[in-house]
């Protein structure tokens, strides 16, 4: 038997949330592992920077300005990927937002916005991606959930965010079972505290110290540390892995 391959050479991928943070690093990481990458984010972000970084690896890229809450824009983005790069085989859905408010005061609009982007946006992304993958003979999807889908973070007032991420984990399992006999695997990766712009602001420095002391490995993750787990699930090395959630949290959920 051949050794398992973690390479994803010449496969065509789409990454949502690719203009910043984890999604941006994953778009570059997929290219480093051989994929051509469609980079999707809201218009106005730094998609051009991500596309340039992907191209520096020698792989091809296309910028896809789109909103993950808009089914029509997702369909158009997937069509653009297939036109410019080839049949879609891999997808990583990392677009997301976070904010906080005490539950008793949270306006329904704030609840709905987080659910719309983080949960409905992931479902609509999977739907658009899978329609192409079902036509093309299969693929592999990784949705970025969060350890907040498993725990309620100490001190963070974000019932809407936590609920959205629990939903991402479970919609991933549901879609894995719906598409299991048609060649599509669906999994989620749940990062712990990760050093992205969201967590590097001076005003959250005290909170970051708390995050670090809550983490058995004693620090936040770097975005680089999300690449291996995501590429593993996308690759043929994970050919018998579907419907699972891989927690990448430095051990937070052990305590
Ligand atoms: P980030 O740097 O803010 O990146 C998220 C990206 O998603 C941004 O470029 C954002 O654009 C984009 N986005 C937001 N709404 C969108 C929409 N409707 N359509 C398309 N793109 C949209 O955040 P991050 O920390 O890298 O987080 C990436 C993912 O990891 C999120 O799903 C987050 O919940 C998850 N996560 C993060 C951590 C952490 O500690 N950082 C931990 C666990 C899970 P704008 O900047 O224009 O809003």
Automatic annotation (TrEMBL):
Family annotation (Pfam families): adh_short_C2
Taxonomic superkingdom: Bacteria
UniProt entry keywords in alphabetical sequence: Oxidoreductase
InterPro entries: NAD(P)-bd_dom_sf, Sc_DH/Rdtase_CS, SDR_fam
The UniProt record lists the keyword Protein biosynthesis: no
Keyword Oxidoreductase part of the UniProt annotation: yes
NCBIfam families: PRK06114.1
Family: Belongs to the short-chain dehydrogenases/reductases (SDR) family.
Name of this chain's protein: SDR family oxidoreductase
